[in-house]
UniProtKB/TrEMBL annotation:
One of its GO terms (biological process) is regulation of cell shape. Pfam families: FTSW_RODA_SPOVE. It is found in: Membrane. InterPro entries: FtsW/RodA. The chain crosses the membrane at residues 21-41, 53-73, 80-99, 114-132, 144-164, 184-205, 212-229, 235-251, 256-275, 340-357, 369-390, 402-427. It comes from Thiorhodovibrio frisius. It comes from the Bacteria. The keyword Transmembrane helix applies. One of its GO terms (molecular function) is lipid-linked peptidoglycan transporter activity. This is Bacterial cell division membrane protein. It is a multi-pass membrane protein.
Amino acid sequence: MTAANPTSWQETWTARAPERHWLLLCGFAVSVGFLLIFGAQRSVERLIEARDLLPLALYVPSLIVVHLTLVAVRFRGDQLLVAAVALLSGLGILMHYRLGAFAADTLAGALRQYALYPACMGAMLLVTLAAMRGRYRHLAASPWLWALVSLGLLAALVVTGQRYRGAIYAAGFLTPSEFLKLSVVLYLAAFIAARAAALGAWRYGVLPPARALLPLVAVWLVLCALLLWQRDLGMVAILNVVLLLLLTLGSGRIGYFLLGLAVAVGGSLILLRFFSHSARRIDAWLNPFTDPTGASWQLLQGLSGMYSGGLWGQGFGAGNPEYIPIAASDFVYAVVGEELGFFGSVLVVLFFLLLFQRGFAIALRCRGLFARLLAAGLTAVLAVQTFLNIGGVTKLIPLTGLTLPFISQGGSSLLASLMAVGLLLAISDGEPKGRGRTKRRKA
């Protein structure tokens, strides 16, 4: 859903009425969620203080600022995308508050912690404003710059990071590798768009063009080696799926996907021999009751919580997420299942599907190959990450340790995800198809 090329802010205000209505519903839904949590807290005689209202007091104005800014700059891009992100992010704030992820003793301390959300929404807005009106095309000028940024991020993390629970974090437990979801997609989109013809020229129809692929393969091997050294197999999985998707879309050759699938299966079997923690996760997935209080403890507690939620859930604030280890991070979906039930969990998945549908629809409408690949790649990153998280929590696939976009705790993940949405919004605004239908008022 996009605005119809308004030329004044009054026309934009009218054209973006659906977005305004959806954002009002988001604000109402999140407010009801907070009331339910406050009610549960009052039932255990906990007093509601001013700092308890702070998350909601920051969330609602953030939505208002985003909407009014888009109206003021006569933004013509997608409206449902903004609403889907607003609701998912609002659910994330609810979960963080519910799980005490940002517990603070004073109002000032709470303000510093909850300021993360409006700051990330502001970053999304800045990216949109900077890249809209087709300015995102400048990002295709230097694909090697994005490759260097990606490798530099990982190299700096390897040199200066500290290992904790098997992963490597930067100072302050930041995860700069989250921004690979932007820089690597920008590199792939720019590289493939500039060499699409050469990449599509397979010898005899069965052999990929080695010379055209060589620079990409060299960068990719170094990138994957650095990620594997950090034991970040989840990020390796996400980026390789996006690589195959973009190569297939950019070259028009399905062979890239089939060849990559075969390499991925063979590579996974080899990696399992060298990464014992991944082998343990697969064993816990296949045989969860072999070690129910050890390797399978988190998975079984999450499944138990979702089962206790039933169809309608126990209600916000009425569950027992304290029994699920690290619930605020990669197992937040289990808390959703316990407190909102099966229907609430399905509703969350539907909003994710709406987000992905809008992202891929934006990609399909793009006439330029770079824009199409960039929109498809950014959407695919979010979609694959969501599938790996929810699939792991529900025991559909082995656990990967990845967070759930927009909802799990993690400032770097939230910032990178919202910046990706900012780029998607900018691409939706710069569609060439819409520019030819600009209506001008008569003087």
